[in-house]
Amino acid sequence: MKRQIASFLVIVAVPAAAAAQVYPDRIEVRTKARAVLTAAYQGRDRDSSREEQVDRQTRTLKLGPNGMLGLANVAGDISVTRGNGPDTIVEIVKTARGRDVNDAKELLQLVEVEVTERAGRADIRTNYPRGEEARRNNRRNINVSVSYAVTAPSGTRVTVESISGSIKVADIKGDIAANTISGNVRISGAGRVNGAKSISGTIEIADAETDGALESSSVSGDVILRRVTARRLEAGTVSGNIKIEDVKSDRVSGKTTSGSVGFVGTLAKSGRYDLGSFSGDVRLILSGGTGFEIDANSFSGDIRSDFDIVTKGPVQAGRGRRTTLTGTFGDGSAILDLTTFSGSIVVTKR
Questions:
Q1: CA 10/CA 29 separation, integer angstroms
Q2: Residue 152: enclosing H or E segment and its boundaries?
Q3: Are 164 and 74 in contact (CB under 8 A)?
Q4: Which residues face 96 on adjacent strands?
Q5: Taking a C-beta distance cutoff of 8 angstroms, is the pair 30, 200 a contact?
């Protein structure tokens, strides 16, 4: 299992580094991710004719109000929410599908949940048989999923990793990092979000804040940030839309290869907003009176603005050639760097 998780970590590290600059070469990451997913969890069919067996267990962890929880899964959803007591409660549900009842029961025994607890910290891992162990049990396909429902004190620091499954974290104020290969990541009411990444799935972060940078990325899926506060925000995807609404940040970057980029809200004074798409529109809906400098470029599309911009040089526009708009509105305290290759750029008032 350690080798499985190590492979996963190598893969998700690529979107982290490329969150601010997303280009087609990252599609290679998706191919590698699917290969790992296939090797790690085969036979996940949904044939209703197969027999199903379920094993449920509950673990109580004495981590304290500011403990650390690491959870690494292979297949199955994970939710982490704030609890009322001082302990961390973990509900574990293993579900196996087999040819018959005995086959399903045997599959349940092959997949183990390893819990390691020490002072103020716990690590939970889902272990599947692999290599010689799988051959010894005459098993190529392990049709077992494991889901986790965790309730923890608000200050718990959480790191969640999965290969196939969605992740949800709500009302946790400690440091949060959530990564999955195939599944959605949704974080709400968080105190400090260090990162959220998926290869194939939507990233959605709402009502969260962090002292430093927040990186969020997907290869095939949307990235949505709502009411997020951070010193720097980075949102990136290859195939999907980016939506940034009512955020507070001095540096905002939103890049997609195939999709649109939308920003709604108030600009920060002295803030910098770097928004771009290769194939899609870039649209800003601005409130408040913050002035800005704008440098907008589109190779194949229109550029429109509702603001009285004092332009620097003539606006260049024409069919089949690059369209640009460079100028200043108000005191020019914020900087808008807007680009698209095939799409329009629109800046309107809220």
A1: 10
A2: strand 144-152
A3: yes
A4: 53, 144
A5: yes
Amino acid found at 252: V
Amino acid at 288: G
Q: How many CA atoms lie within 13 A of 42 on its CB side?
A: 10
Q: What are phi and psi of 66, to 5 degrees?
A: -130, 35
State pLDDT tens for residues 4-60: 444 433 333 333 333 334 333 433 444 444 444 444 444 444 455 578 999 999 999
Composition of the chain by helix, strand, coil, percent to 5: 15, 55, 30
Beta strands at 88-98 and 51-61: parallel, antiparallel or unpaired: antiparallel
Residues 248, 232: Cα–Cα separation, whole Å = 9
List of long-range contacts for 112-119, beta carbons under 8 Å, 24+ apart: 113/57, 113/146, 114/1, 115/59, 115/61, 115/90, 117/61, 117/62, 117/63
3-state secondary structure 283-327: EEEEECCCCEEEEEEEEECCEEECCCCEECCCCECCCCCCEEEEE
In order of 80, 106, 183, 243, the CA distances from 229 in angstroms are 21, 48, 25, 15
Cα(208)–Cα(269) distance, rounded to whole angstroms?
Answer: 21
The angle at the Cα of 57, spanning 55 to 62, to the nearest 5 degrees, equals 160
- Helix (H) / strand (E) element for 217: namely strand 213-220
pLDDT tens digits for 156-208?
Answer: 999 999 999 999 999 999 999 999 999 999 999 998 898 999 999 999 999 99
Token couple for 79: 């939710």
249-283 per-residue burial string, b: 16 or more CB within 10 A, e: under 16: bebbbbbbbbbbbbbbbbbbeebbbbbbbbebbbb
Residue given tokens 């086959």 in the structure block: 103
For 180-202, letters b (16+ CB in 10 Å) and e give: bbbbbbbbbebbbbbbbbbbbbb
Pairing verdict, β 88-98 and 144-152: antiparallel
CB 261 within 8 A of CB 280: yes
- DSSP code of 269? T
